[in-house]
């Protein structure tokens, strides 16, 4: 199928074309340019709108009422759920999606990753992100503390053998943590520091050993203290690290969001959704990793007695009657709008949902609209709402 978008403001990722056009054929950008283009049959004039690359989300657990890994590895159920999640987020502009799995027994994680392997191979998913089980019990957040454990090489090997793991979040202070960072980095897997109680020195050691990502910075880790900077300062201040930020007004105050983005600098921060099943759905009762989650006003929290020590790392004193934050109900287009409304430049925010996360994944074909790109195009109106997605 061929589509040509005409007369829009085209953001290719490398340049902005005020009166531009994009030619897509069979999901690939074949040409991009400026000025008049004779309208072919499948053209659409998009004057007054922005044409941007498809978004890239490297941290997403679910959406559209479905969750990655919910069945524990049943191939048919996992594929159906994954496609439902991808469909919801694609409607909101995300065309490259990494499936994040919460803590489960390692054999179950292997089964889920194996069940999703066909979708990774086909390109429907961009890989698997393991957020657990090698996390700190002190910063468990919505993860069941009983499922958390120290990493051992045999478990790491079993998960790597699935061939689809692209990122792993772990707490480097655990016994064997730094060795695991090294093992994963040598295998070409992105290592992220998160759900950690590490001090700054241990965090720096993890980066020196190969960690390159901060999982939802500030959340599920010690807060900054002027005499104990902890992981936040160590990660934010290291130019080798890309930091994840959740722009929903729940995980981070807008002032913290903008400060972190400016401190990191363009190209060193990404927006992620950390979305769970309720993304795109009404308030109600949901599940994440076997735990009951209550969504009220679009905010997901563990139901009473399900756990404490939420994703904001306040050890449970933030959750009130509904308990700890349990992911988000975000989509990336909403995160983009929130970040822009908070005062960040549109170009910087667009980079944080396109080329920077694509670069993390090593996907030179995603996150831009230059010829050869395969991530599709998203049409945004003047309010940055998604009008259409073109693949």
Give a nutshell description of this structure.
Keywords: Carbohydrate metabolism, Hydrolase, Metal-binding. The protein has 391 residues and is α/β, with parallel strands linked by helices.
Can you tell me about this structure?
The structure is a single chain. The protein is of the alpha/beta class. It folds into two domains: 3-53 and 371-390, Roll (Urease, subunit C, domain 1); 55-278 and 327-361, Metal-dependent hydrolases (TIM Barrel, Alpha-Beta Barrel). It has helices at 75-91, 106-122, 153-160, 177-186, 200-209, 230-236, 254-264, 332-341, 346-353, 355-360; strands spanning 2-11, 16-25, 28-34, 43-45, 50-53, 55-60, 62-63, 66-67, 94-101, 128-131, 165-170, 190-193, 213-214, 242-245, 269-271, 284-288, 291-296, 299-302, 377-380, 386-390. Strands 6-9-10-11-12-13-14-15 form an eight-stranded parallel beta sheet. Strands 1, 2, 3, 4, 5, 19 and 20 form a seven-stranded mixed beta sheet that branches. β11 (165-170), α4 (177-186) and β12 (190-193) form a beta-alpha-beta unit. The longest helix is centred in the N-terminal third of the chain and has 17 residues, at 75-91. It is globular, with a radius of gyration of 20 Å. The protein starts with a strand and ends with a strand. The model is unreliable at 306-320 (pLDDT under 50). It holds the Pfam family Amidohydro_1. Its cofactor is a divalent metal cation. Belongs to the metallo-dependent hydrolases superfamily. NagA family. Keywords: Carbohydrate metabolism, Hydrolase, Metal-binding. Residues 51-381 form the Amidohydrolase-related domain.
């Amino acid at each position: 199928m061929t589509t040509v978008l005409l007369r829009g403001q085209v953001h290719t990722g490398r340049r902005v074309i005020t009166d531009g056009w994009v030619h897509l054929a069979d999901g690939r950008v074949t040409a991009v340019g400026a000025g008049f283009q004779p309208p072919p049959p499948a053209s659409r004039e998009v004057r007054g709108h922005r044409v941007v690359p498809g978004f890239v989300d490297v941290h997403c657990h679910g959406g559209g009422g479905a969750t990655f890994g919910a069945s524990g590895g049943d191939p048919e159920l996992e594929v159906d759920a994954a496609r439902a999640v991808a469909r919801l987020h694609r409607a909101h502009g995300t065309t490259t999606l990494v499936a994040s799995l919460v803590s489960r027994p390692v054999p179950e994680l292997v089964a889920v990753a194996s069940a999703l392997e066909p979708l990774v191979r086909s390109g429907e998913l961009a890989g698997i992100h393991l957020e657990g089980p090698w996390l700190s019990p002190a910063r468990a957040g919505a993860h069941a503390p009983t499922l958390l454990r120290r990493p051992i090489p045999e478990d790491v090997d079993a998960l790597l053998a699935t061939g689809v793991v692209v990122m792993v979040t772990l707490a480097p202070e655990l016994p064997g943590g730094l060795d695991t960072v090294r093992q994963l980095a040598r295998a070409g897997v992105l290592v992220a520091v998160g759900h950690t109680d590490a001090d700054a020195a241990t965090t720096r050691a993890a980066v020196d050993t190969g960690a390159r990502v901060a999982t939802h910075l500030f959340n599920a880790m010690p807060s900054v203290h002027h005499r104990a900077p902890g992981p936040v300062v160590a990660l934010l201040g290291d130019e080798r690290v890309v930091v994840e930020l959740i722009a929903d007004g729940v995980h981070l105050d807008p002032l913290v969001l903008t400060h972190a983005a400016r401190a990191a600098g363009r190209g060193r921060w990404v927006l992620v959704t950390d979305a769970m099943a309720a993304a795109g759905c009404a308030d109600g009762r949901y599940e994440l990793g076997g735990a009951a989650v209550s969504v009220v006003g679009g905010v997901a929290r563990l139901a009473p007695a399900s756990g404490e020590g939420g994703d904001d790392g306040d050890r449970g004193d933030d959750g009130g009657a509904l308990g700890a934050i349990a992911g988000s109900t975000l989509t990336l287009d909403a995160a983009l709008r929130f970040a822009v409304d908070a005062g960040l430049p549109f170009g910087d925010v667009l980079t944080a949902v396109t080329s920077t996360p694509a670069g993390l994944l090593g996907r030179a074909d995603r996150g831009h609209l230059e010829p050869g790109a395969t991530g599709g195009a998203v049409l945004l109106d003047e309010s940055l709402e998604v009008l259409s997605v073109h693949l």
